[in-house]
Specification:
Blueprint: H1 22-34, H2 41-66, H3 71-95, H4 105-125
Helix pairs in contact: 1-4, 2-4
Length: 132
């Protein structure tokens, strides 16, 4: 679009104080997800597919490796996927001057997937407090 730009200069970054309690942070995530009904259908599909494919990859990798099914093939595929995504993530984190988060990437990915699932399930059963 013509009215949109990406700015990587540190002067353009916006910071807000982080939530210090897990409950507050989780409720904030619930509010963010509650806006999903306003997304375009294709965007919702892509976001859902992203989390679903990541979850399937992680669970199938753990399962296949734990039963040692064709591990000589599975392990390099898992490693290649993590190397490629780690490099991509690192490139973005470097651009945003968030280098310290790169080391935690594999752990953060798993936490993100399961947190998002928890948020979605929680929002199915109770409505989040909306924006003030």
């Amino acid at each position: 679009k013509e009215n949109t730009a990406i700015a990587f200069e540190s002067e353009s970054f916006t910071y807000s104080p982080p939530k210090t309690k897990f409950k507050d942070w989780f409720n904030q995530k619930r509010r963010h997800v509650s806006t999903a009904s306003f997304y375009k259908l294709f965007d919702k599909f892509q976001l859902g597919l992203f989390f679903l494919t990541n979850l399937i990859f992680i669970l199938s990798s753990i399962t296949l490796l734990s039963v040692q099914y064709q591990w000589i093939i599975v392990l390099p595929v898992v490693m290649l996927r993590y190397v490629l995504t780690w490099v991509t993530f690192g490139y973005g984190a470097n651009k945003l001057d968030e280098k310290d988060v790169v080391y935690w990437y594999p752990v953060l990915e798993i936490i993100l997937i399961f947190t998002q699932i928890s948020v979605f399930i929680t929002n199915l059963f109770s409505k989040p407090v909306h924006w003030k």
